[in-house]
Amino acid sequence: MTVSEPRTPHAVSAVTDAGEGTDEERALFESVIADDKRIEPRDWMPSAYRRTLVRQMSQHAHSEIIGMQPEANWITRAPSLKRKAILMAKVQDEAGHGLYLYSATETLGTGRDVLNDQLIQGKARYSSIFNYPAPTWADMGAIGWLVDGAAIVNQVPLCRASFGPYARAMVRICKEESFHQRQGFEILLELMQGTLAQQEMAQDAVNRWFAPSLMMFGPPDAESTNSAQSMAWNIKRFSNDELRQRFVDMLVPQAEVLGITFPDPELAWNEERGHYDFGELDWDEFAEVLAGRGPCNAQRLQRRRDAHNDGAWVREAAAAYARKTAARAVEGAAA
Ligand SMILES: [Fe+2]
Ligand SMILES: [Fe+2]
């Protein structure tokens, strides 16, 4: 299996359904995809392409927003002012990522209020990884290194996604994600150079986050339902298993620098494949967390609902201010 080359594009027939749009619209869309160019919001696009993007981009936006919680919880307890400032900046970046992505999704005609309702009513998905608890400071290191690390591997190919606003949002997001990964690595490095208790805390956090971070790439290719179509549309460039392999290959040398191990007895270099082999993941656990029965699903959603309700006065004040400003502009024009 090669992870360095994109797969050959699928036949054009997989790109659009007949019976939708005019022949000319379909042909134009297909040629943009075939030439690996960008579709922009005002261009004609098949409704399934639009739906797929709304689903993927809004899930991504929700993940950024829910993903603030495990770390925001540690801002007040960060061990130094420097760590506090860095963590605060990181959590703020995630809020920004959520907002770019909601804005990019809005260009497809689905409003942020609709997306937000789907999230707080528990109808929308977000990355399962954020349903795991973060009980120690070392979790901040493991989340940055492994979770943001997996996010980068997933998202770098999305910088070339066929939908322009998504691809452009990803370019900036990826730059910030690489800072996030480095700060996580650095937290772990410092702990690994500390006392035995600190080293154990770092190892324990990595033990807990390793498998869930590998599951962030989604189910194995054989069970991944949306992948082939997303590849035909140049939204997805590599399969789940290809990206997972790339991530493991990237992590192992970094773990050696840290002096940390992974809780996988099957992890070993495979000379023949030129990649690291790794053990089967517990997909039953993944399904449980995805179905809302993970350790923190209910807590994360409730926190988001509370934050939404607590922010009602801000939205009302902003709307009242906008009305007042608009009314003044009308008065000014009439005077
Ligand atoms: Fe992010
Ligand atoms: Fe991040």
Question: What is this entry, summarized?
Answer:
The chain is mainly α. It has 13 helices and 2 strands.
Could you list some keywords that capture this structure?
single chain; 335 residues; mainly alpha; two-stranded antiparallel ribbon; 13 helices; 2 strands; 64% helix; 2% strand; globular; disordered N terminus; binds fe (ii) ion
How many helices? The count is 13
Contiguous uncertain segments of 5+ residues: 1-13
State the oligomer: single chain
**Hetero groups:** fe (ii) ion
Strand fraction equals under 5%
Overall helicity: 55-70%
What is the C-alpha radius of gyration, as a whole number of Å?
Answer: 22 Å
Judged by helices, strands and strand pairing, the structural class is: mainly alpha
What series of H and E elements makes up the topology?
A: HHHHHHHHHHEEHHH
Mean pLDDT: 92
DSSP, total strands:
2
The span between the termini is: 72 Å
